[in-house]
Amino acid sequence: MDYVWVGLGGIIGALSRYYIGNAFALWFGLAFPYGTMFINITGSMLLGLIQVLAMERFLFSPRFRLFSGVGFCGAYTTFSTFTKETLNLLQAHPGVALLYCSGSVICCLLGSWLGMVAGRLLFARWPISGRYLDAGS
Amino acid sequence: MLPLLLGISAGGVLGAIARYQLGRSIMGRWGRVFPLGTFIINITGSFVLCFLAGLLAAGWHFPSWLYAGMTTGFCGAYTTFSTYAYETVKLAEDGEQLTTLAYVLGSVLAGLAAGWLGFLAAGRL
Question: How many CB atoms lie within 10 A of CB B52?
Answer without folding.
Answer: 21
